[in-house]
Amino acid sequence: MNTIFDTNKPIAIGCDHAGYEYKEAIKTWLQEKGFQVKDFGTNSPDSVDYPDFAHPVASSVENEEAAFGILLCGSANGVAITANKHQGIRAGLVWENEVAKLVRQHNNANVVCLPARFIALPLALEIIETFVSTPFEGGRHGRRVEKMACM
Q: Which positions, given as ranges, span the membrane (predicted)?
């Protein structure tokens, strides 16, 4: 898999109970492709609070300890909102491949948020491949991304 992200850094991944099965499958798939993965949990399908896992993933990306982040929950909305509270994070909620491409090209997203209850696992893997291989276009999009942060 081609990637535009730093392959010397791990990929940060986290989820709540709804995303647990997908997280485990995605983690294995990434490792089989030679990527390092930093798993921030959860580590079972037992009910948990998604911010407890979204914040550490976002912090890891924001602090440049991880190349990028992957977050999963039922709708992906909760983890996306939580991750986007971090100043250096641009988390995109992605449910189809074209959206994965656009959040990278236009928004320079550094965290992809996947709705485990609404997409099949093969699509989730395809989305991740698209996310990691799509470069940011810059230009007019760069100007817009620069205006996102609250100062």
A: none
